[in-house]
Write a structure and sequence with these properties.
Two copies of one chain form a homodimer. By secondary structure, chain A is α+β, with helices and mostly antiparallel strands. Chain A has helices at about 5-10, 15-25, 70-80, 95-100, 110-115, and strands at about 1-5, 30-35, 40-45, 50-55, 60-65, 80-85, 115-120, 125-130, 135-145, 150-160, 180-185, 190-195. In chain A, strand 4 and strand 5 form a beta hairpin. The mean pLDDT of chain A is about 95. The interface between A and B is large, with 114 and 114 residues. Strand 12 (about 190-195) of chain A pairs antiparallel with strand 12 of chain B, so a sheet runs across the interface.
């Protein structure tokens, strides 16, 4: 293995460094976030740094870049309080990636890239109709990360839409079957294959393989 | 698709709900975090909620559960300030998962599960020798998420160890080639296959496929 020091990394071009550091943190749970602008226009943007924060309450967070770099989704969420998160399938990774283009405020990325907004259960933000795993969020807290002006946007999951055949007897959702894609770096997309599930780990007990 | 409401989800058993909500956020960039206890003993623990925060400075964060649930890694980082993050390969996902068992403080999970601590470049925390992508971190900030007592631990990446054949001409690291695994839910592991890379998206320009 080669040792890349911070000194070397800081000497790279901005683009090379961004590709390297963005890949280094691993494959990411990339998803499309749907919001509604105060004018009523829908907004759709791709986000890849998404974290599970807890199951009770059902908290999920995502990282939003500095406001000047990525203003629309965060502003809509702060105003409207409700948003959707939608997994991406392999057939439309190009459309999902295209939502990262800097369209003017008030322009619907749904229309621009050719994905379909789906309004249901009177929810105040659009789901992505093409998505096989969708969930609805209510804003809880916007946490500032002072060091580089990014934000951890924390929300409570209040509705989920999943094909029941993906959901196992113990609540596990088989996202391999759902074909939810992962992202890598700034612009790479991949698909996952199943390896194994294991029993809850205890110090003096061998693991059991559960199968996927 | 079935609609799962929050009311229904809250009525589930703790275990079923944890599996469901943990899977819902998508595949995760699971890694092993290596730290050193003040006694000098090494600690190793598996973490799956890892986020890229920025490439300049090179900030990467991870979510730590409440202190009472997951005390050792965070305490060691706060004391020592340095830690390592190591990708996991398919051959030892069982050993990686086993690090989640609640071993007593001061016990080395390296020894317990059979992974090899690697000390190099005088770094004050152990790398996982079996890992094909390793990076070294310096603590920047521990951000509290008040709503459920979890933490976003923000660090600066100061060294990386990667096989140069995985690193593309533009800095992109091919983690499919590196066979870095992803996790799903509390106990599932998968491997990724490459789909596509795309050019930087602009409003009035079609995407170019870059290949992986």
């Amino acid at each position: 293995m080669k040792h890349y020091s911070l000194e070397e990394i800081q000497g790279w071009s901005r683009f090379y460094r961004a590709n390297f550091v963005n890949s280094l943190s691993g494959f990411k749970p990339v998803s499309l976030i749907g919001t509604t602008h105060k004018s009523g226009e829908f907004n759709l943007a791709i986000f890849s740094n998404i974290v599970h924060l807890g199951a009770d309450p059902t908290l999920i967070g995502f990282i939003n870049r500095p406001r000047e770099a990525a203003p629309h989704t965060l502003a809509n969420i702060e105003q409207n309080l409700f948003y959707t998160i939608n997994h991406i399938s392999p057939e439309y990774i190009d459309k999902a990636h295209q939502t990262s283009a800097k369209y003017p405020e008030g322009v619907s990325e749904f229309e621009m890239v050719g994905l379909t907004p789906e309004i249901k259960i009177d929810f105040k933000a659009p789901f992505v109709k093409e998505s096989m795993v969708q969930y609805a969020m209510e804003l809880v807290e916007v946490v500032s990360i002072k060091h580089n002006n990014t934000f951890l946007v924390v929300g409570k999951m209040i509705h989920a839409f999943v094909e029941p055949s993906y959901v196992g007897e113990d609540g596990f959702i088989d996202l391999v079957k759902a074909q939810s894609v992962v992202s890598l770096g700034l612009d790479g997309y991949g698909e996952a294959t199943a390896l194994q599930r294991f029993s809850y780990a205890k110090p003096d007990q061998p693991l059991t393989e559960l199968g996927f």
